[in-house]
């Protein structure tokens, strides 16, 4: 193998490694963006879930109040 051939092979290897590094950096950047948007989505879903839990709690309270009112009316009708 001549020195020139070895140098060319070495240059090709370096170019290939640089290309792989560029691809890896782009993937890392994309995954970082994806991660950020996922974190935002999780935060939004968590907030929505909290609101729904509060709404559910309020509705359960209203149902209990309606049950008490209904029971009271039933008792007054029976007496």
From TrEMBL:
From what organism does this protein derive?
Answer: Magallana gigas (Pacific oyster)
**Designated name of the protein:** Uncharacterized protein
Q: Where is this region: Disordered?
A: 1-20, 26-60
Biased-composition ranges for Polar residues?
A: 43-56
Report which superkingdom the organism of origin falls in: Eukaryota
